[in-house]
């Protein structure tokens, strides 16, 4: 498949302020961070934090992260302040758990655990000696996919806006405050969208409506690289007190490195697949974003009620990134 050029890609590179990390030698440099995510606490080591995707780090620490004790966003208050800092973070704790678990499992499978070797041990010779038929050579700097576990990170921020029927009771007062009927309507719209878990349905609808070839190439590239066309979001939830749904999907990148233990060639490389995988390196440490409007009509009537059609607009923002663990 032809590469999707950045000039024509439906996902374009975004200029974002990188997460500020101060790693200068300091006597009070933190090795672990204590995070308070909406009342749920996590104790996470520094290496785990720095392995997280840039787009997730920007959500966790929009004002930057400095890994020294003097930089704590807030502290417990008490005699133990010099021992551990507490960061208050406005981020979904269940989503954070999903990301941490996926990255930990992916790392263990690739690098191994004390009780079992990982995939990297079996393919070490690809790094040490390279392959005489390979176009990529032994240089790991040119092809980090040989030594790192690659994970595709796809996030969606969905803001939705309901247009109630004129004949209904849903309305706002003179100050623009929604009444109980409108709040109920918004909740039902949010629940309807929440259960639309298929990743590519909305984007495929946009492709069909606009005949956008670049967006079709994007879907094809992602599905060749690890996703399936029927895949669902790994985690999807309504944001509290907002008409917004946050979703994330993580998949292992298909690098073309094939492990077949017990055969004459325990490790082989599918070079066309490796070439496709290398296209995703464009998004390594460079989150890219796509935004579009999606308008649909939904029937919010309960069982036995007459039809209640509501026009529902959704502003979808996708962020695509590649992480190397």
Automatic annotation (TrEMBL):
Gene3D superfamilies (UniProt xref): Potassium Channel Kv1.1, Chain A
GO molecular function term, any single one: RNA binding
GO cellular-component term (any): nucleus
Protein name: Phosphatase activator
Gene source species: Cristinia sonorae
